[in-house]
Queue: 4 jobs
Job 1
Amino acid sequence: MIPSVEEFKKHMERLRIRRTDNIICYDNVGIFSSPRVAWTMELFGAERVRVLNGGFKKWLKDGRPTESGPEKID
């Protein structure tokens, strides 16, 4: 199901995600629900949405960089 515009907007504001952000969607199990998330983001007007090919496990397996901890907002 698709959330209402109001519900979607409420959650995006809480997460500080803007439609002009670079948005990367990924799963911990490969590619399961991330395409649906990406599609929903695009449906509501996000301009730059991508799905991480292979998910987070592949990202780690490939030795790519990660960050943890609170987000640093400038």
Job 2
Amino acid sequence: MTASPPTFPLPDAVATGALGARLGRVLRSGDVVLLHGDLGMGKTTLARGMIAALCGVDDAPSPTYTLVQSYDTDTGDWLFHADLYRIEAEGELVELGLDDAFDGAICLIEWPDRLGRHVPERRLDLHLKQDGDGRIAQISAIGEWGDQLANV
């Protein structure tokens, strides 16, 4: 019997950022987090929590228009935050440097449905959904994660 993925209630933006910070503390170079959810579900807020925990940047800009924001973490790793909402064809992904990022960075990817055949085999799929006035987050670890997520 397969256990259901862990679910986290997110009553507000503060709780969403806090979950991001908890996740950020366990991420390492080569980890990929795919942030799924409709517009306004809190994908960027969650990513900002991870960026704050890893890089000390408290108000990271959304990559909606730049498509990619890059950071150095406090441990010297590279963090790659991409918003693929405006990507219309898989060929555009090459220009963003995703292959290099997947190989050596911590990657936070909003709108991962645009990745097509480029979805990494090892990843966290994080789904944000409406739950009354708040949100709910469900995290699925795909590939080997060991006990890396035990303390989230």
Job 3
Amino acid sequence: MSTVPLVRINYRRPPGRLQVFEQRLVYDGPDVKVTLAESLPYEPPMRIEGKVVLELGSDVVWFTFPGAWHDIGRFHRADGTFTGLYANILTPAELNGLDWDTTDLFLDAWMAPDGTIDLLDEDELDEALGRGWIDSETGERARAEGQKLLEDGRAGVWPPPIVNEWTLDRCRDVLRRGL
């Protein structure tokens, strides 16, 4: 049995969906929390730009930055092949011990392994605003965050170095050894 703590992430998606994710907390720093989501049930596979980025049995290394309006996931195929970085634009996570809460703001950023970066799901954000699921101020905050990720990614200053330091192999090693 692992001595690595299990975090419960309450992930809200307006207007009323709640998903609860349980992930292992492999690193708990003051500026970043690194969790590992194991053997995800992606059936059918998730595709971005026509390529499978998550599939049944995939693992994702997640980075939660206290106070930030996005998180970052290192996506992998079931065989462990790195497929890219995915950033959810969301409300800053409320971290209550091992119980976390956040709300998805629909917009996402994707950075392929070659470093190209794009915004995803702008249509979903537009729909959420049109239906009143989120207010215009929050929608503008989401768009600003997405634009900042695009600009920083293209300038080579995003993601932060820790995202490349915490690989899937490093996380698996922490689980094997315990904390």
Job 4
Amino acid sequence: MTKRPRQEGTALIPSNLHVAEDCRAVSEVLARVGDKWTVLVVGMLGDGPKRFNEIRRGLGSISQRMLTLTLRALERDGLLTRTVYPTIPPRVEYKLTKLGHSLLDPVSQLGLWARQNRVAIQEARQRFDDAAGAS
């Protein structure tokens, strides 16, 4: 059996991604950290602790329910802490954990990459759609 040469542009895939359990774990984490609202909330909390309404105002179009669900999921995953202060009414503050702070750089880099390549991706989609329509 002869070994085929690697195609140009084909990246080598780490062997552990072929293990079903590892693949599921990676997919689960990427689903959380790749979520639109997760990225935005983590970015907002990068400046320091914020209250619920500060986060909501900063994000603009998020519903109260979606923000609540996102914050709970981030707390559950250990990316942020929720602190309730015994005041009337209670004051609640959200703050990134050490793990949450470690996500800031990759999220920022991915956001930068997306902004830098948005036009190229849109052009590629248009070329693809034009070619598919011509077939």
